[in-house]
Amino acid sequence: MIKVIIPASGVGARMGASVPKQFLELGGQPILKRTIAAFQNMDIVNEIIVTVPGEYIQTIADYGFSKVLHVLDGGLCQTRAASVKLALGALSTNTDIVLIHDAVRPFVTQELVQAVIDAVKMHGAAVACTPVTDTIKKAESSQITETVDRNKLWSAQTPQGFTYNLIMHAYHQAEKDGVLHQVTDDSMLVERLGLPVSVVPSSRANIKITTAEDLIFAEAFITHSIGTAHQGNFNPERLSPIRAGAFPAGGSDSECRVNSLDELAPTRKVTIFTDGACSGNPGPGGYGVVMQHGEHRKELSGGEPQTTNNRMEIMGVIMGLETLKQPCEVALYSDSRYVVDAIEKGWVTRWQQNNWMRNKKDPALNVDLWQRLLPLLDTHKVTFHWVKGHAGHPENERCDELAREAIVEIS
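RESULT FIELD:
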């Protein structure tokens, strides 16, 4: 079962309002009500748990959301982590995945939630993030000491998703170690265990309403995209900044159609799975690609009569990215350590800086393909993920089938 925790016990001091910020009205409805409604309307969500100051428990009950099975008094919780821990204690053991979401992010979409859930199923933990676009400086005593490489920086959002056992263990360990009060982000607790947390590309439209300026921005969202929402016909899915009519891969039947908020979310979120295969290595080889964008799917394959497995692994990545005709945020999954480590560990960059030498004696291999791939990584925001091959992952298995079919066709 998929269960959502919405910690809403804070007072919202930065907003400077007379009521907690989550109860301020946005387009005629409390922000928190809109946030809960977003998950209430998602079939993939089974249960919602909300923590609020004690005096607002009845307010939440009066909203009448059928999936809100627990409204907990978080008034004595001094930190967000304490509120989340309180809610975790209300979960039953039949919980499969826990999503933790900020009370004041009302524009969350089902597409994003599904992407986080899918990533949790694959990796155990996942966080919605947006790539950092500003230039980031480090400073000491008002003097800049360093310009940080923003290509590896992401701004964490919510929802953040975890398997039930993992998040329970992470919170238990943090409390045992006496660090729970230091936590500002749930995924930090998984990171400190040395376990991986997957990045799920999100949109800047998934804003957190923290200041008065944020509230003005959110009001503009509603005013300019759907008009003022009213009780009884409010549908949070209409607030999605991306209304993808089809896969963004070019051609009249595959252009993305977006609403008037498109300028706030210039990139599309795409998931790509790739695999390569080779008979003989070297020998005839093939690659397979599965691309997903919302409900839309595209498969690619091809091969060469004389090649290697590693070249086909790279080709799968190249062909998937070259299919995209506009900048995209791409989550790319490959079972090739060679490909994933070459990018994520910076091997390719070092080879390029060393005139395509791995060391003083040995040249880098497959230079032509790396030179073809690197510009694509500048065009798109790509996050590489390694998956274990032949382990039953359906998309990876499908890519393997496509690659082997391509070998048969050219043999």
